[in-house]
Amino acid sequence: MSGKLKRTRASLPTRVALIVLAVLLGMVALLAVVNLAANGNYNHATRSLQENIKTSKQNNVDWDKLRVRQQQTDAQFDDAGEMRALLLPQLRESIDHNSRVSDQLTKTIIEKAKSGKDDQSDSDTNANADARQTNGSESKKDTRLTDAQREKVEELLKQNTQSTQSDSSTNGSAANQNTDKSSSQTKPW
């Protein structure tokens, strides 16, 4: 039995200290993973929020699509703040702040989506009524058009008027030239 080595065990306080240290390291690792995941969700949600804010400032916005995207952004902020107790204070404050901004944007988008549907149905009804009343004459300006839409309509009307005038002047001068030629020249047939 001389070939067997005898192992010595660490003392009880040393073993307890190592177990406590392992548990603490495990908790720190868990906190790090939770904070990293929350930070990733927060960053993604913040980028989405910034894109939605930029989109909401544009003229031609599909409010229904934007509402859906914004609700997804709200859900991302909710996911980021899910384990609030384990998050670092700065991250928790950032998530709370951007979540409030996101909620306000969502409310604004929902209001505009509702008013856009109401305006669209009103303008469709008004357009049909105006078309029946005017029967081809110029209809009243629709105050629900955006400035960009109004400018485009006016530009198209100007182009239409100019092309109509140039066509009639071209046709008129061509007709005058034809009558002048026919009176001065004899036709062989």
TrEMBL record:
List, as start-end ranges, the regions of compositional bias called Basic and acidic residues. 138-157
Q: Where is the composition biased (Polar residues)?
A: 123-137, 174-189
Domain of life the protein comes from: Bacteria
Specify one Pfam family: DUF6466
Query: Which residue intervals are annotated with compositional bias (Low complexity) in the record?
Result: 159-173
- Annotated stretches, region: Disordered: 112-189
Q: Which InterPro entries match?
A: DUF6466
Q: What is this protein called?
A: Cell surface elastin binding protein EbpS
